[in-house]
Each structure stands twice: as C-alpha cells, then as structure tokens.
Predict the structure.
Amino acid sequence: MRNYLFILLLLVSLGSWSQELNCEIVVNAQQTGNENVQIFKTLERQLKEFVNNTQWTNKTFKTQERIDCSMVITITNYDTDVFQGTLQVQSSRPVFGSNYGSPVYNYNDKEFNFQYLEFQNFVYNPNQFESNLVSMIAFHVYMILGLDGDTFAPNGGETYFKQAQTILNYSQQNNSKGWKLSDGQQTRFVLIDNMLSPTFQPFRDAMYTYHRQGLDAMSTDAKKGKQNVAESMTTLQSLNSRRPNSYLMRVFFDAKADEIQQVFSGGPIVNVAELIETLTKIAPMHASKWRKIKF
C-alpha cells in the first residue's frame, strides 16, 4: 500500500509539472441575450480543461512556473453550432525579486468565429487542422509561449513562434477569417508574419532588453534597470523609422503603455526628456500617458 501511494503521489507530482499555462477562460454571451444557455457554460469549462491540461511543449514547468494568462471570449451571435465573437488574450510574466506580474501579451482577436457542438472533443494536432476553434486557441497559446520565451532569452520564443506559423499555414484551408494576408492588416497572419520577419528582429531584441535587462535588473540596481528599459524604447524607435505604425508595435504598447508610465513616474531619477520624445513618436496613441511622466 505504501509503494502504491508513493507511485500515485509521484504521478500526480509529474502531472502538475507538465503543463505550461495557468489560464483563466471566460465565455461572455451577454450580447446574445441568452447568456445563461448551458452550451456557453460547457464551452467555457471544456476550453479551460483543454488549455490548462494540454502539454504544449516538451519542457517541464513547475506549478509556480506556469505562465499566468487569460482568454475572454465574447460571443456576439450564434445559430445552432455557428458562433461569432471576439477573443481578448492577455498574459504576464513575473519580475525578478518582486510579486509583480508584467503584462506581455494583450491581443484582441476580432475574427473569433467558429463551429462548436456541445461536448465535442478538443484535440490539438501540431501538424494537422482539427477545427477553427482549436486552431485559434492553439495559435494564441503559442504566441503567449513565444513572447514569454523572448523576455527571458534572446529569441527564446523562436520554436513557439514557428509552431504558431505552422498552425496558421494549415488553418488557411478552412477559409475562416484572420489566417490570410487578404483578411486585413490587423490579423493573426500579420502578427506572426511580423514576429518571424528579420525586419522586426529589433522588436524581439527590445523584448529581451526591456524585461530581462530592464525590469528584472531593477531589484538590484533600479536606476540601471530603468535605463535599460529606456534603451529598449530606442531600439523600437529604430524599427519604427523603417516600419512606421506597424501592427506589432501597436500590440506591444497595448500591453505596455501603463507599465512604462509607471516605471518612469517614480524611483531613481533618470533623464526622461529624450524618452518622452521617443515614446510620443512611436506610440502617439498613448500620448496622454507619456505626458504624465514628469521629473
């Protein structure tokens, strides 16, 4: 009996280390006027189990190492098994030496349309299309993993971004919106195309500098950390001069604008005049936040 209990505890322990995400999922159907219909509750429960219990990588994650994230699906219309809506995805990563979670990914997928029958199985196949719902969820899972990886090591998310691209490629066969260049300039296609383009390498460099050499360093040298965060904005400026108003830059500042304002509105004084000028050029939609940075 003692050996049996030991083996059982070992299996539970190993299972708790295998999954990568701690993801809260909400299905909001208020706009349909039928938010209490059981199918929405079933969909929410199944998606939570699917995202949090699937092993997305070949790495081992301890429970405390899981990536905190959320997905809010807003259903705007449905008819039998056809659903139309949007998906808001957010993720964060811990900052060394603190209890703070830094926002990394904040993406609004406006083409979140799919078919779903209550209790249908969700099966993820890394090399084969299963359903548009599974593909869209898996795509954003790998974007979360990729961006998280880039914040800890130079190009640390490369493997995950390539898997997101694989998902995009095989999902184009189903003709749902968001997977093709012809679907517009603010889509999953544009997002992963930019992320893997050599032209946008400075973006990924900035992600590492901002988080690992900037925020993480602030616990031991707050001023140096802040200077490195400012340096990452200079890197983004060089990218913006070649590709102004890029979608990738918008996605970045949707996640980071509030944090940047807070970082430079307290603590050790650094020269922010040039930083404010840079931020105003590359992210003018957040100019009201940049004006609040005063020293």
Summary: Confidence is low (pLDDT under 50) at residues 1-17. Residues 202-290 form one domain. The chain has two domains: 20-196, 202-290. The beta strands are 21-28, 67-79, 82-94, 101-109, 114-115.
